[in-house]
Design brief:
Helix content: 25-40%
Radius of gyration: 17 Å
Shape: globular
Number of helices: 6
CATH superfamily: Vaccinia Virus protein VP39
Number of strands: 9
Largest sheet: 7 strands, mixed
Strand order of the largest sheet: 2-1-3-4-5-7-6
CATH class: Alpha Beta
Number of domains: 1
CATH architecture: 3-Layer(aba) Sandwich
Structural class: alpha/beta
Order of helices and strands: EHEEHEHEHEEEEHH
Amino acid sequence: MTAYYNENDPYAAQWLRNLIQAGHIALGDVDERSIVDVRPDDLRGYVQCHFFAGIGGWSLALRIAGWPDDRPVWTGSCPCQPFSIAGEVRGVGDERHLWPEWFRLIRSRKPAIVFGEQIASKAGYGWLAGVHLEMESEAYSFGAADLCAASVKAKHPRQRLFFVAHASDAGLAGPVQHGEGICGGQAAPPAKHRDAGLRTRVCFEPNPDALVRIDGLPRPVGYVRGFGNAIVPQVAAQFIKATIEVIDE
C-alpha cells in the first residue's frame, strides 16, 4: 500500500516525509518535481495519489473520514493564487494555473474517484465550473460544496470549494451553483446556516514533532507557508464522509 505525494516545495516535501515516517499520513513516496514533469506511467502501482500535496492534509482528512489507506483515490488542491483576491487574479492566464496539468494525468489514468479544493472566490467559482465541465466530458459524476473552517470550530473562516468526481453513475452529478455549494446534487442551506451540522471538535494547532528545519530556509517562513497553503483536514473529512454515504449506499 503505497501513496504518491507530488509537492515541489522542498520544505513542505520534507515535512511530508516526516509525517509519513511518524505514521500520521499514508505510507508513500514524495516526488518533488513540478506536476508539469510528471508522466502518467510514473503513477503506476500507487493506490493513492496526492497532488499539490502540501503538508499532507488530504491524506489526514481521508483517515479522519474512515477512508482506508488501501482504498484508491486521487486528491489535489490546485494553487489558489491565480484566483485569490489577495493577488492579481490573473485566472487561467496565470502560470500557476495548473489544473490543465492535473487533468492531463486524470484523463490518462482514469482514477475511480478524485477529491479537490479551491478558494471560494468569484474567480474560484469560475474555475470550479470549468473543472466540472471537463470532468463530465470524461464521464465523471461531479459534486461540490462551499465550506468554511469555522464549521469545525477553527478560529478562522477559510472559505473553500470542495469537489468530488466519481467515475460511475453513483448520482453525484448536479449543477455548480454560485453562492451556494452542492454535494450529491443537493443544494446547500442558506449561507447564514451553512455548515450548521458540522460540529466536530478540532485542534488545528501545529504539532512541533511534525515540523522540520531545512538548512538555508528560516523555519518561520516554511512554517507559515506550509500552514497557509494547507487545507483544514477536519473540513475535508466531513465532505469525504458525505461522499462515502452516497457512493457506498
